[in-house]
Amino acid sequence: MNFIPDINISEYDYPLSDGKIAQFPLPVRDESKLLICKKGHLSHDIFKNLTNHLPKDSLLIFNETKVIHARIVFQKESGAAIELFCLEPELPTRELQQAFEQRSGVVWKCMVGNSKRWKNGKLTKKIFTGNKEFVLMAERINQATEYSLIRFDWNPGEISFSDVLNNAGIVPLPPYINRKVIESDNDRYQTVYAQSDGSVAAPTAGLHFTQKVLKNLKEKNIRMEKVTLHVGAGTFKPVSSNTIGEHEMHAEKILIHKKTIKRILENQGNPVIIVGTTTLRTIESLYWYGVKSMLKKDANVNIEVGQWDPYNPKYNIGITVQQSLQWILKIMDEKGIDSISGQTRVMIVPPYKFRLADILITNFHMPQSTLLLLVSAFIGDQWRMVYDYALQNDFRFLSYGDACLFFKK
């Protein structure tokens, strides 16, 4: 496919030492630094002053996903610790919210830590919920290259799998945070507006928001909407190939409500501010879903956006945002539904043309990562200037680090 961008990942490198990676959040969320890049000019402020830098009458869109306690550590009788990292449900349902409501006897795809020490048999773990004890059991029933299928049973079996995770699991901090989980991570590795269980990593740009910042946004007549993208473990998967065309982008589940689509249409002519790369991928995927559906004259309401769809000439035929979104609303009206869902693998790299996003709030990302490529697509080669500035001015990097405010090039 000659339309796939020819990008060498080595061109998106920068020197990130361990000392620059934030191991803990600041005591107060909105006291993080904010680096601003607008029309090639750099400045910085404190995140609590975010509203001062945003145009009034804008539409700001969040990702309201909620991080689950996806890591469960079992102790074998030999003393070996086996960690099961829950990725996504397999049986009796793959629908995420239904999967959390299931009673004893579920199968999930999991990554297995210290896998060689677990040859066979069941792992067991005693857990307390309230004043009641239950026993959690895990059995490996199949093994693939990147994950295993794990059957979980628990006794008594009347509590939900969501309750199991909340009581047996721990917060899945990223691998570059080299410390044990502490009690405060339960709160701080979660946005203040999180609603829908499903992520194994936080949408970190949102970690800086406080109720005070949200109040300031409303007072400036900046309207707010939410979408859902459940962040998968693939977000930490490094680009191991030399060129980006050889990298396989992971799929992530998304959900968008009708009222959000309507609000975007009503906002035409005013800036759209996106909080985080997950929200950005969701909103841009919405456009491509509409385009593909229009061209196929397809009334299927399951979103399915491929990695390279935005670069394919057959989809780049001048369909406007308004046409795409109006088509989606038409389908939703015909089906009598208030939301659409599905999955996206969309990969945003230069020279991607953004259809919906004007302003991006994000954190600093890993060298040679797909997210750094996304930033480059949004602000161009200025990303190098931004990251050099941040390194020289003691900004804190990655999930618990500082924030950026980018105006599209």
Strand order of the largest sheet: 2-1-18-17-14-3-12-13-16-15
Number of E strands: 18
Secondary structure class reads alpha/beta
What Rg, in angstroms, do the CA atoms define?
22 Å
What kind of sheet is the major sheet? 10 strands, mixed
Low-pLDDT residue spans: none
What is the CATH topology assignment of the largest domain?
A: QueA-like
Our estimate of the beta-strand percent is: 25-35%
Global shape: globular
Please give a structural write-up.
With 409 residues, the protein is α/β, with parallel strands linked by helices. The chain has two domains: 9-67 and 190-407, QueA-like, CATH 3.40.1780; 71-168, no CATH class. Helices cover 22% and strands 28% of the residues. The chain has helices at 96-101, 161-168, 185-188, 211-219, 258-266, 277-296, 321-335, 370-379, 382-392; strands at 33-38, 41-46, 59-63, 65-67, 71-75, 81-91, 106-113, 122-129, 132-143, 148-155, 196-199, 223-229, 252-257, 272-275, 302-305, 339-344, 359-363, 403-407. It has a ten-stranded mixed sheet with strand order 2-1-18-17-14-3-12-13-16-15, covered by helices on one side. A six-stranded antiparallel sheet has the order 5-6-7-10-9-8. Strands 4-11 form a two-stranded parallel sheet. A hairpin with a 4-residue loop joins strand 9 (132-143) and strand 10 (148-155). Helix 5 packs antiparallel against helix 7 (321-335) and helix 6 (277-296) packs across helix 7 (321-335). The protein starts with 32 loop residues before the first strand and ends with a strand. The model has no long low-confidence stretch (mean pLDDT 94).
